[in-house]
Structure formats: C-alpha cells, structure tokens
Specification:
The complex is a heterodimer. Chain A starts with a strand and ends with a strand. By secondary structure, chain A is an alpha+beta fold. In chain A, a hairpin with a 3-residue loop joins strand 6 and strand 7. Chain A contains four helices and nine strands; from the N terminus they run E-H-E-E-H-E-E-H-E-E-H-E-E. The model of chain A has no long low-confidence stretch (mean pLDDT about 95). Chain B is an alpha/beta fold. Chain B is built from 23 helices and 20 strands. In chain B, helix 17 crosses helix 18. Chain B is globular and about 70 Å long. The model of chain B has no long low-confidence stretch (mean pLDDT about 95). The chains are: A alpha+beta, B alpha/beta.
Chain lengths: ~160, ~575
C-alpha cells in the first residue's frame, strides 16, 4: 500500500543522505521524495512516498523517528490531506500541433512557460492521476523532456 | 582568553570527566597529539585503529562509562569502521574522534582524506563534521549526550586540522536541547499495568533478558521481579550476567547454542516477557516456530526494536530499569503475588526435567576439551573475572561454561560477531579495572586478527590474560562445514601455518604458556593468574570438538542437535 509520509527535519548538512540512506540500508523503496526549507530556515520538510505493508510502514516511521536529525514524522495515510506534484514538460511543437497542445494545456489548467520555434515548455500542477493523464495526452505529440518535483503533501485543517 | 580547537576539545573531554583516551597518531591530528602531554588524561597508544575502538568499547562495557578514542584521517579513520559497527550493533557508548584534512581541502581527494561521515553514517548513532571551532564544544557536548543516553551507541566527530588550530573563547554548554532527539525513558503507565495483568495470568511464563538489562543497570530490578513472581529467566548472549547464571531461576542462554531447557521453555511458554532484547535471528531461529504458544510483552527503550522481527502483544517503550522498578512498585502495592507463586509449580517441574535430561555437557578424553578449559578458568577465577571473547566456538563455549553472575563481566561482540574484538576489548577493560582479572577467551584464528595489541598490553603494563583454545581450525566455520558441507574443510584448517604462540608472546615481551594435556590445564591457568604481566596461554585442544546444543540455521529453536 502506498503511504505519503511528511517528515520535519533539521536543515543541516547530510540530512538528506541520512534519510535516503535509512531507506536504502534497510531495503525500503522510495517512490518520490521532495525536500525544501520551511518558514523556519533551520527546519525543512520532506515528503516521502513509499510502499509497504503495515509492518514495513511501522518500521519506516519508527526508524525515521529514531534519526537524531528528524523532528517529527507524520504518516498521512488514512488522514485527510492534500497532495500535489508539479511537472515541467518540453513537448515538440509543429505548426499542425501547436493549437492542440495549447488546448490540452488549457484543459489541465497548465501554463506555457517557454516557447521556441520547435517546442513548448509547459507547467502543470496536480495530483498523480492528473499529471499522468496530461503526459499520456502529450505522448503522441512528442514529449522531449520531463522534469517532476515529486509529491508534496499537507494534512488538511 | 582564546583557546585553540585542540584545547577546546580537551577542555570538553575534561568537562565530560573522560579519564582515558585510546589513540593512534597521524598527520591530521598532530595539533591535538601535540597538546595531549599537557593534560591529565591517561593515554593508551594502540597498534591499530580498529583496536582503539574495540578498547574504548571494552572500557565502556566494563565500566559503564563512555569510551573515547582518537585516530587520524583517511586510513586511520577507515580502520575504525569495524570497531564502530561492533559498538553500534551492541549499543555501546563510544565517542570516536577522527582527524580530517583542513576544511579547504575537504572533497578535493587530498592526501589521507576520506569521507568518514558518509562511510560511518549507517553504523553510528550519529556523526558530526566539525567545520567551525566556535561550534566545537557544543558538538562534543551533544556527542557525549547522544552516545550515552537513550539506546546508547557510537558517535563520531570528524575534526578538520584547521578547526584544531583555529581559536575562539571556550564555553561549555550547560544545557543542551536537540529537537529531534528526545528518547522515551519512562514507560507508559497503562501499558505497564496491562503487561502486569498478563504476567499475573500466565501459567508458563518466561523472561527473556537481553543486553538492555546490562546497559540500563537493571539487574537488581530483574532479579527482584523474577524472584517475586518466581518466573524463570533466559538470557541472550548480550544479556549474560544481567541475571546471575547460578541463580536457581536461570535457564542459561537462549537460541542457536542456548541450553535445551531455555529453548524448550521458550517454545512451550504461554507468556514471553522480553526485556531489553531484540529478537535477533540467532535467538529466534525460524520465526514461525519461535515461541508459538505465547503472548508476548516487549520492554525496550528503542521503539524500532519492538515488533521488528516478532509481533508483540504489549509493547512498553522505556528504560528497562525504570519500567521494571515501576512494575515492582505496582506489584508491591497491589498484592496478589503470593497465590501466584504456587501456581507455577508444574511449569518449574517441567523445566527442571528438561535441565536434567539434557544438561550442557561434553565427553572428557585424553585430549584437552575446550569446555574443560573454560570450566577451570571459571573455578580458578571464582567467577569474578571480566571475560572478553573473540567470536566463534570460543565465544559460545565461554557463554555456556563460564557462569556469569555479574553484569558487565562478559564483553563480547554479539551483534556484529567481530573476530579480533576480544583482545583489545580486554585491554580496555583492564584499563578500567587495573586490579581485576581480565581474561580474553580466544580461538587461534580470532587472536591473530589483533594480536599486534600484545605490544599495547606490554607497553602499558596491562596484565591481560589470553586463553587460546587452539584447535587449528576456524572452528565455528569448520563445525558448519562438518554438519552441512559434508566435512569439506575448505579454507578453515589454519593450524598448518600458525605461529608458535608461546614464542610470539615472548617476542612481544609477554609471557607464553602452553598446555597439551588435560592435567596441564589447571597449572597453566594458575601460573597465568599469578603472573602480574600479560600472559598468552596456548591450550592445544581437541581439533574437531563442536558446540552443542546447536539449532541449524533456519530451524525452530526446539529442533536442536545435541551432543
């Protein structure tokens, strides 16, 4: 089962390596990981998406909690939360496909962030399904490059 | 007045009441080495950095204090990894100080540079790269706090050369607060009460005590609880001594080479109370067959140890000593203990029968039996020695035949199984207790892994005794080859080219003694104990003796091979 885990960590040297090392060292897989500073510059938030049965997830959260640099661990599974990911896509743009690309981008409430004679770069934000659907639609047109942020999540309320 | 990083470090060690430091010098830590003679600190120069950590570890295990060692950068630092991993697996408080190239050269593949922070991240409780002399005292304060509190463990502090020479005002922090590090030491009261209710209902209970009993100093509480409720106690290798081996309620060790009665009792019990033990695979055997009829209570300071391998019914996160003290207090308040005592008679009768039908034993012949050597060491030291072991058959025979009655009297590499641990650990223990008898029980294979430390023992006048059970083989591997690989002794017969251990001891300035017949064993041990110098005893023992009982890997623990 997929779990989204939000982790507050000290914003210091090597923290990412400690967290990532914990996963690799114990054979847990990370599906997605994003990290950035919070309002407090000494603290960062990591959003980690991983998979496992209850026992594995229990170990993951316990092991994360045990790290000296980890301040708080919150498994969002079963809780009400919002989850988003951003993708930047560079798509081939020929004269006959340019309008179609813009239409799709519009439907997905995306934004064109760069234009060249041969391509568009588009930004789309949303949950995993939305991003996947957007990429599926662009695939036949010709995706040149994709950059995804990985998921970020916040508990509601 | 400003002080250099080296001075600040040494001031900080003084504040932490560090009395001894195990060292090996090198270029990157020269500013610190240069400063050392001015400080009232015992300095033990080892002959290999691995031994520096093992010695600090042995010092910590024997004394209950935090062990400290100092090595240089690059190879000096990488040589400590086995020692650090050993301390990590057994939760031993050690602070490892490593030199590092100057901060401006870090990451440039400078001479004798190694990313020791990256290398030791998975095997330290925490590690620090000190990049600013102004933060050095804070780091040292935190390092000692983290090493010794909660579930103890090794902490490494990497010290770039320029940080040791830079200067600033010295101020040692009185209070520290680490946001992400707040160990739970007091058990949850409702959980403790739930656990007690379950204990009082059990008719076939067993306590399974681990190294947490020793590290939290909970032996007295464990004895009290076991005696109040008359519950039999089995111990892990790391737990030996945490409960007296000669106590009528002691079942001895559990697991792969545990006693028949301990393994049967755990298999048949209806309640297993694990205290400071982590359900290691050498203890549980095949998980599905481990204590299948029991409810399980697990008391441990480390929440990650709970339900990691075996699901438990009642977890209690907390320091063993504090939790047991609360249990005893509740029992004393609530009464009901008296009628419970009678209800375990049948259970004790069964256990006694297991003990009588299958005791720990061996067949005496005209050749020295290793078990006999251990028995005689036990008798002649009156069970009062600090015993360290190497790893393998020697370790298991020591665990089986030396009845440890006191905590911190067995120092052994339980988790990592590090050959070469015992001798430097014995040196550390002897430094902690110069007046006590310290004996390293070794194999002829293991002792050769750190035998250069004979020089350290002689140099520092440490009268450590080493008892080599010399069978000419890497014995435990040979035993597995005998049982599971059709006696094909590939790469395990080392006796063909082993040194003459007596001459080797003499070459280092120690004393060498040898026994080749059973009747020579006692005189050799007596002579060794009488001599106030390091002594190496070479006992030429039965080459193909095995350690029994033995649970084959992957089998449940009631499926034992017996003698």
């Amino acid at each position: 089962m997929r779990h989204t885990i939000s982790v507050l960590v000290e914003n210091e040297l090597g923290v990412l390596a400690r967290v990532a090392g914990l996963f690799s060292g114990r054979g847990f897989n990370i599906e997605s990981l994003s990290v950035a500073e919070t309002l407090d510059p000494t603290v960062s938030t990591m959003t980690i998406v991983t998979r496992g049965d209850d026992q594995i997830i229990e170990q993951v959260t316990k092991q994360l909690n045990k790290l000296v640099c980890v301040i708080k661990v919150m498994d969002l599974e079963g809780k009400d939360y919002v989850e988003r990911e951003m993708v930047l896509v560079k798509v081939a743009a020929k004269a006959e496909t340019r309008a179609e690309i813009l239409r799709i981008t519009d439907i997905f409430r995306g934004k064109v962030v760069d234009v060249s004679p041969k391509s568009y770069a588009i930004e789309v934000t949303g949950d995993e399904d939305k991003i996947r659907a957007f990429l599926e639609l662009l695939k036949p047109i010709g995706i040149k490059e994709v950059a995804r942020t990985g998921r970020v999540a916040l508990a509601r309320g | 007045m400003k002080k250099t990083g080296s001075q600040i470090l040494l001031e900080s060690l003084k504040m932490e009441k560090v009395e001894v430091i195990f060292n090996y010098p090198g270029g990157a830590i020269l500013p610190l080495i240069d400063e050392l003679p001015c400080w009232n600190l015992k300095k033990i120069l080892v002959r290999h950095e691995q031994a520096a950590v093992h010695a600090a570890d042995g010092y910590a295990r024997a004394s209950g204090k935090t062990g400290v060692c100092l090595v240089t950068s690059g190879p000096g630092a990488t040589n400590t990894v086995t020692g650090i991993a050993t301390a990590f697996m057994d939760s031993i408080p050690v602070v490892v100080l490593t030199g590092q190239v100057p901060t401006a050269l870090i990451g440039n593949d400078a001479f004798q540079e190694a990313d020791i922070i990256g290398i030791t991240r998975p095997c330290t409780k925490y590690n620090y790269l000190a990049t600013d002399v102004r933060k050095l005292s804070q780091i040292i304060r935190e390092a000692f706090h983290i090493a010794r509190s909660g579930r103890p463990g090794p902490v490494l502090v990497d010290l770039p050369k320029d940080v040791l020479t830079d200067a600033t005002e010295f101020r040692y922090p009185e209070e520290i607060y680490i946001k992400g590090y707040q160990p739970t030491v007091d058990g949850h009261i409702p959980q403790i009460k739930r656990a007690l209710r379950l204990i009082l209902k059990a008719r076939r209970p067993v306590i399974y005590a681990g190294g947490g009993i020793v590290s939290s100093g909970a032996s007295k509480e464990l004895i009290k609880l076991a005696e109040m409720l008359r519950i039999p106690v089995t111990m892990t290798l790391m737990g030996l001594g945490g409960f007296p081996g000669t106590h009528p309620l002691s079942l001895g060790m559990l697991g792969m080479h545990g006693t028949y009665r301990a393994n049967m009792a755990v298999t048949e019990c209806d309640l297993l109370v694990a205290i400071g033990a982590r359900f290691d695979d050498r203890v549980t055997g095949k998980i599905e067959g481990f204590s299948p009829k029991s409810k399980k209570i697990h008391i441990d300071i480390d929440p990650t140890s709970i339900s990691k391998n075996v699901r438990v019914d009642i977890p209690v996160v907390g320091d063993c000593k504090r939790v047991l003290a609360k249990m005893i207090a509740f029992l004393q308040e609530e009464g009901g203990v008296k009628e419970y005592r009678g209800s375990l008679d049948k259970w004790h009768e069964r256990i006694e029968k297991w003990g009588k039908t299958h005791p720990l034993t061996y067949q005496q012949t005209q050749v020295i039996k290793p078990q006999y050597v251990i028995e005689k060491i036990y008798e002649l030291t009156k069970g009062e020695a600090i015993i360290t072991t190497e790893v393998g058959q020697n370790q298991m025979w020591a665990a089986q035949f030396y009845l440890f009655d006191h905590p911190r009297s067995l120092l052994t590499s339980g988790g990592l199984g590090t050959m070469g641990y015992g001798f430097p650990a014995a040196i550390g223990a002897q430094v902690a207790f110069p007046e006590r008898t310290v004996v390293d029980i070794a194999g002829d294979g293991s002792i050769q892994m750190n035998i250069q430390e004979l020089a350290t023992a002689v140099h520092n006048k440490l009268p450590v005794k080493v008892a080599i059970l010399n069978n000419g083989y890497l014995g435990m591997v040979r035993q597995w080859q005998e049982l599971f690989y059709e006696r094909k002794y590939s790469l395990t017969h080392i006796g063909e080219v082993s040194p003459d251990f007596v001459k080797l001891a003499e070459a280092y300035g120690a004393v060498g003694l040898r026994a080749t017949r059973p009747e020579e064993v006692v005189p050799v041990i007596q002579e060794a104990l009488r001599i106030p110098y390091p002594v190496l005893m070479d006992f030429v023992v039965e080459p193909e003796e095995g350690v029994y009982p033995m649970v084959p890997a992957g089998e449940p623990i009631d499926q034992m091979l017996l003698v």
